[in-house]
Fold this protein.
Amino acid sequence: MTDERLRMSGIVKRFPGTVALDGVELTVRAGEVHCLLGENGAGKSTLMKILAGSYRPDEGTILLDGEPFSPSTPHAGLAAGIAVIYQELDLLPDLTVAQNLLLGRSPRFGPFVRRARRAGLARQALDRVGARFPVTTRVRDLPIAAQQLTAIAKALTADARVIVMDEPSATLGESELEAVFGVIRSLTEEGRSVIFISHRLDEVKAIGDRATVLRDGRTAGVYDVASTTPDEIVAAMIGEAKELVRPAGRPAPEGEPLLTVERVHVPGLIDVRDIDVRPGEVVGLAGLGGAGRTTLLRALFGDLKAHVTARLDGRPFRAGSPAAAVRAGLALVPESRKEQGLMLGLSVGRNAAIAALDRPPWLLPGRLGRRLAAPALAGLGVRSVGQSQLVGQLSGGNQQKVVLAKWITRGGIKVLLLDEPTRGLDVGAKADLYRQVRDLAGQGVAVLLASSELNELTANADRIQVLYEGRNIARFDPRVSPESAIAHAVITGATP
């Protein structure tokens, strides 16, 4: 395992307002399982998208088997032997498993697809990953674990030299994961290279040969997995220089909780217990991707089927639908503002006023909408050419302000649920948004804030709950707890 398969040198990638990668180095050997580690936002996904051809680097070079490599598209990357299994699966839900596995590469006789041959090849690929479901099944009809196995099998049908697996275990059971590990071992025995991305250090120890750790868009170190302890890896991920962050000049809110969550249970996803939020308090939800933060907020908002035992204002509370949650005084700023929080084809004014009136947006009078929304938009400092501008034309930060303005315009907010509210925002926009959140808290609103940016939680939350694999495992006061201790619990699931 000494032959160099892949070398990425000095990789730089900039996005508006941020440097995602700053001179990253990654070297992968032939026949190696190379683990790529780092906290959320460290740059792992961006680096792999550059390798796959989805992004072009601003600086840096890539060598694949010693030859310069610069894929311009994902298709070019795949043709060169780079197969990526993304955490957000790139399968076509309305096609069958067999059609997905051999999309664009189906065996043919003239212009006709040889369906029996395609089904046979698909069956071989599924058998290799231990999947037993029929290849004729539509992908949308499969459970998420089966979809994950389909994505892995799809990568195996390509003649890939490098296979990237991004959190492949997030939805898999123990037996399914062991089958995947068997596939990984057989791939490396054939001389292929596997880049394995995971937050679960027990998996890294079980399958990895070497590991590269990214921190804040830079390479923090390269480690031999067998001779490195989990604590050493965690220290590299979170950094030794992180200082204690204290919420400046803010007394801890007191009084009876406004929202008490006794239990939220979604079988197979989350089982969260005993979280409460007082009026004026910001409670942070920390955790890795897949820890259950989004599921918890959606369940409280009535946006998915869940067993919820909670109290609001001292009374039993369970929202059977988002509309019922809104009537009760809950407001949700979702993770995907473009897909779930806004109607991009409508104006700023109509988006900001839509929650204030229970009617379809196309029936909302323009003048009334502008009058209702004006105070909130002005108070939040939304920058636009006017309320008639399409909200899809605004910057990300201003779009997020419009989502918040929607709930302020409606009024009556008791509990504000925020899911990754600063994703994609620059530093200034983040500061503006958190000022607005603190203003709402100052008016007695209880805030549940889910974020993968731990430094933002320690700076803005009064208390922090850590979620790990669907359960809340620890509680911290950021006034007295070092950020490194919270990060350790987030990554390892170990309670203090």
The chain has two domains: 4-238, 259-492.
